[in-house]
Automatic annotation (TrEMBL):
Keywords: Acyltransferase, Cell membrane, Membrane, Transferase, Transmembrane, Transmembrane helix
Name under which the protein is recorded: Membrane-bound O-acyltransferase family protein
Family classification: Belongs to the membrane-bound acyltransferase family.
Native organism: Flavipsychrobacter stenotrophus
Cited InterPro entries: Ac/AlaTfrase_AlgI/DltB, AlgI, MB_O-acyltransferase, MBOAT_fam
Stored PANTHER family: ACYLTRANSFERASE, PROTEIN-CYSTEINE N-PALMITOYLTRANSFERASE RASP
TM region(s), chain numbering: 6-22, 29-56, 76-101, 113-130, 312-335, 367-385, 427-448, 460-479
């Protein structure tokens, strides 16, 4: 079920109302059934895969906790991880692997007879797989007692607000909340609904409207000049943020209405001054997952620069594969690793240059330049994230050399390089206006606690802003049942 669908408009209030009306002892069951219904809106039969991995991890958690022999505890953990990763590999990576094997055989003049699987990737598989793995790892580490209530554990994996696209929760944060009594509280409910409204505006008013520009550019890149292409790249970077953070806002807001606290998943990533900081602010639940369960166990940054760079590169490779089974995603992930490694290696040199030319002494220029460079680097990498194939990605890169000349042409003539698509002109101005308004809200967030500040405003001001948001949704939203970008992962 899509958050931006008519079905969800009826689903959410009905589920929430019943949740508060039910006695506490039945609420877990109600949420579990509702979560099953929510997930089965996509491909119903795939819920059986969830049930299979839930059963394995539930049993593994108990067996890990009960085992006194460290070797036996590790074996049960490995079994759980292999089961989860195995399911992920079959559905997400099998055809990619076999396709590359076929290509190698063909290059050698041979034929491979390994069949491809005619299957659809279960929606949100990577998200709930990583959440389930968090549970068994934390039980193994002794940070979380094994959950003995099968229904509560199943709800931990399937909790509908964050089931499909996160945040990827840890058991320490979420499991205990299903046993707590949550009574309806006006301020909390209003805060949750306000966050959901903001998320919907980011999705259907900003992200999906940007998509009307970026989709044609990435679908037919050869029809555009360099300036049109790279404007599309920058806009897509913003689109992904608006789309994915919108899902997180709606997930966190809908959970908050019922009394649950989910972790923050975004923290103004476009204000980051380095690529490393960008990833500490972007998809925080995934970045912290890789940090805690891959990067730090490999040694983190405690064993010298070479091993630090190796660990970073490996984590970024895994992150690329997590996002998609394809060489473009692998390149995208490795490019992030290269950015961070080069950034670390040149940190002192860059500071020396900035000090020499006087940039460091002008704080707003120093910070602003770093932010622009970080945005440009991470946006450039979106070529591989969004590109349809390697040929299209290479075309983007080749056109980079034409960009300075076309920028000069634009400044002198005002031509954007896609005048054959005049409908863009009517879309771009409101898109840029909405992006500016969003960033103004982010700047205010740095200085003020917007939640408390907003709740203290007079009712007339608050309701005026609520109605303004509803008017934006009604008259400026793009309603074509467009799913969230991260659903494909």
């Amino acid at each position: 079920m899509l958050f931006n669908s008519l079905d969800f408009i009826f689903f959410f209030p009905v589920v929430t109302l019943i949740y508060f009306l039910l006695p506490h002892r039945f609420r877990w069951l109600h949420l579990l059934v509702a979560s099953c219904v929510f997930y089965m809106y996509f491909v119903p039969v795939y819920i059986l895969i969830l049930f299979l991995t839930i059963g394995i991890d539930y049993a593994a958690g108990i067996l890990i906790e009960s085992a006194t022999d460290p070797a036996r505890r590790k074996r049960w953990l490995i079994l759980s991880i292999v089961a989860n990763v195995g399911v992920l590999c079959v559905f997400k990576y099998y055809n990619f692997f076999i396709g590359n094997v076929d290509a190698m055989f063909a290059a050698a003049g041979m034929k491979s007879y390994i069949p491809l699987l005619n299957i659809i990737l279960p929606i949100g598989l990577s998200f709930h797989t990583f959440q389930a793995m968090s549970y068994t790892i934390e039980v193994y580490r002794g940070n979380q007692p094994a959950e003995r209530h099968l229904g509560i554990y199943a709800l931990y994996v399937m909790f509908y607000p964050q089931l499909v696209a996160g945040p990827i929760e840890r058991p320490q944060n979420l499991l205990h909340q299903f046993r707590e009594v949550h009574n309806p509280e006006y301020e909390r409910i209003v805060a949750g609904l306000r966050l959901m409204l903001w998320g919907l505006i980011k999705k259907v008013v900003i992200a999906d409207r940007i998509g009307t520009v970026t989709d044609p550019i990435f679908n037919h890149p050869h029809a555009y000049s360099a300036l049109g292409l790279y404007m599309g790249v920058a806009l897509f970077h913003v689109q992904v943020f608006c789309d994915f953070s919108a899902y997180s806002d709606i997930a966190i807001g809908s959970a908050r209405v019922m009394g649950f606290k989910l972790m923050t998943n975004f923290n103004m990533p476009f204000h980051a001054r380095t690529v490393s900081e960008f990833w500490r602010r972007w998809h925080i639940s995934l970045s912290s997952w890789f940090r805690d369960y891959v990067y730090l166990p490999l040694g983190g940054n405690k064993e010298g620069n070479f091993k630090t760079y190796r660990n970073l590169f490996f984590v970024c490779l895994l992150s690329g594969l997590w996002h998609g089974a394809g060489w473009l995603f692998i390149i995208w992930g490795l490019l992030q690793g290269a950015y961070m490694i080069v950034g670390h290696m040149t940190k002192k040199l860059r500071k020396r240059i900035n000090d020499t030319v006087g940039i460091s002494s002008v704080k707003w220029l120093d910070h602003g330049l770093d932010i622009v460079i970080t945005f440009s680097l991470t946006a450039f990498a979106r070529i591989f994230f969004r590109g349809k194939n390697m040929d299209d990605a290479w075309y983007f890169i080749k056109k980079l050399k034409d960009l300075p000349r076309e920028i000069g042409l634009f400044l002198s003539t005002g031509k954007l390089g896609f005048t054959h698509l005049p409908q863009f002109r009517s879309v771009l101005l409101p898109v840029f206006a909405l992006i500016v308004l969003m960033e103004m809200a982010h700047l205010l967030k740095i200085k003020y606690d917007l939640q408390n500040t907003f709740s203290q405003r007079p009712a007339a001001i608050r309701w005026t802003l609520y109605f303004t948001g509803l008017i934006l949704l009604t008259f400026f939203g793009v309603y074509d049942n467009k799913q969230f970008i991260y659903f494909q992962f």
